[in-house]
Amino acid sequence: QVQLVESGGGLVQPGGSLRLSCAASGFTFSSAAMRWYRQAPGKERELVASIGSANGYTKYQDSVKGRFTISRDNARNTVYLQMNTLKPDDTAVYYCYVPMFDSWGQGTQVTVSS
Fold first, then answer.
1. Residues 72, 69: Cα–Cα separation, whole Å
2. Can you tell me the distance from the alpha carbon of 113 to that of 13, in angstroms, rounded to the nearest whole number?
3. What are phi and psi of 15, to 5 degrees?
4. Residue-wise pLDDT tens digits, 23-82
5. b or e along 2-25 (b: 16 or more beta carbons within 10 Å of the residue's beta carbon)?
């Protein structure tokens, strides 16, 4: 049974940082590409960042390039999203997703506000 559990969200001031984690289980993590999505109130869910399995190739939405970094630790079955220089527009629920199994985590709330 595929399971994804996000953590690390919270309230942060503009310009601050957070690191999100997504712990995966129920599949061979090292063989799966992983993605982070986000959904702000009243908006559609959007892809934020993705990371490949074998070569760790990464890709980012234009609005987060240079501020966010996706990474993975295959020994810990965990994918991370380091978010720096956060802006109020980054406020959203952030979701972990594994395309191979079309499976989502429950989401973690990130609020950027002074």
1. 10
2. 5
3. 90, -10
4. 999 999 999 999 999 999 999 999 999 999 977 799 999 999 999 999 999 999 999 999
5. eebebebbeebeeeeebebbbbbe
